[in-house]
Amino acid sequence: MSVLSDTIEKFIKSLMSEYEGKIELQRNELAQHFNCAPSQINYVLATRFTPDRGYIIESRRGGGGYIRVVRLNIDDSDHLFQLVTKRIGEKISERDAMDIICRLVESKAITKKEGALISAAVSDKALNIPAMIKDSMRANILKQMILVLLSEEAQ
Known about the structure:
Phenylalanyl-tRNA Synthetase, Chain B, domain 1; 3-stranded antiparallel sheet; 2 domains; 3 strands; 10% strand; 7 helices
């Protein structure tokens, strides 16, 4: 099933690049195109096109319903501020941290190497501390690393 999800994700991303980061999809038509259940499309959208990865999903149900996928602009300083202060917050799980790092790499805000270094620093393996403080420590490290890398002085 992962191969199908990867294929659907790549297809949607290719459409996004063609249409400047904003597309409207018909879930049933997309499911027919990939010969899968509509729930598979929902799964891909829910797991691969999240705000942490830089997407907003809007939908309208009914006969003329659609799913709109919008790519957020990482250059928008307000979006970056929201990412660092609101989304990361006081605590963040390893999975959510990796999604944010992936988003920054995909948008070329940071390099793959920088992303790999941040990922290593905030991984459960690196944070060999009690579970009750691990997500707080991860959030602090992640926020500081992102702010340093994206600051004007680091350029």
